[in-house]
Design a protein that fits this description.
heterodimer, A: 112 residues, mainly beta, B: 114 residues, 7-stranded mixed β-sheet, 4-stranded antiparallel β-sheet, 0% helix
Chain lengths: 112, 114
């Protein structure tokens, strides 16, 4: 049972344009969501998070949007840069439970 | 950001032998660490939660006698894969939980069992 789903295994975006990565979840108990960036043979690096009491959180080029009614979140990267090319994982947790449930990841490729 | 290290980064072992992987939080104390496993092009799957000074909590389907976890100090957790088989070949990643609630991940360990 995949509680966190990233339905796009890959995404290709031109440098300078906006990258939008999507994530859906099924467990309505999740109240904290995170995005991680991962390079091959490395551990995930935390990017940005959002609590369920918010619908938007912004940090520099990265913005996460949360639509609780649709159980959907998205990560916007603008402008996209070649260094953004990596696999992006969304993760969800029930705060207090500490455990993270990860999506399958989306490989983002930024083309020059 | 916080630093979590793993050792070794890559290990090859023969079938039937045991392999120990270390996870260290270098600049903060972590009462809780997590062990994940990632198969190629798949998600990170939580294997177990490691709590300092107590027994680890394993996720459903993870054999606790095969994947031994020890969290003997606030900065070190170890995962020992016992009697390794080729199907145990995978990328193992640990994370350390900071008091702020954020998890910081190690760089991972690639295990190949021949």
């Amino acid at each position: 049972d995949q509680q966190v789903k990233q339905n796009s295994p890959s995404l290709s975006v031109q440098e300078g344009r906006i990258s939008i990565l999507n994530c859906d979840y099924t467990n309505s108990m999740f109240d904290y969501f995170l995005w991680y960036k991962k390079y091959p043979a490395e551990g995930p690096t935390f990017l940005i998070s959002i609590s369920s009491i918010k619908d938007k959180n912004e940090d520099g080029r990265f913005t996460v949007f949360l639509n609780k009614s649709a159980k959907h979140l998205s990560l916007h990267i603008v402008p996209s840069q070649p260094g953004d090319s990596a696999v992006y994982f969304c993760a969800a947790s029930v705060r207090g439970a500490q455990k993270l449930v990860f999506g399958q990841g989306t490989r983002l490729t930024i083309n020059p | 950001g916080a630093v979590v290290s793993q050792h070794p980064s890559w290990v090859i072992c023969k079938s039937g032998t045991s392999v120990k992987i270390e996870c260290r939080s270098l600049d903060f104390q972590a009462t809780t660490m997590f062990w994940y496993r990632q198969f190629p092009k798949q998600s990170l799957m939580l294997m177990a939660t490691s709590n300092e000074g107590s027994k680890a909590t394993y996720e459903q389907g993870v054999e606790k006698d095969k994947f031994l976890i020890n969290h003997a100090s606030l900065t070190l957790s170890t995962l020992t894969v016992t009697s390794a088989h080729p199907e145990d070949s995978s990328f193992y990643i640990c994370s350390a939980l900071r008091a702020t609630g954020e998890q910081y991940f190690g760089p991972g360990t690639r295990l190949t069992v021949t």
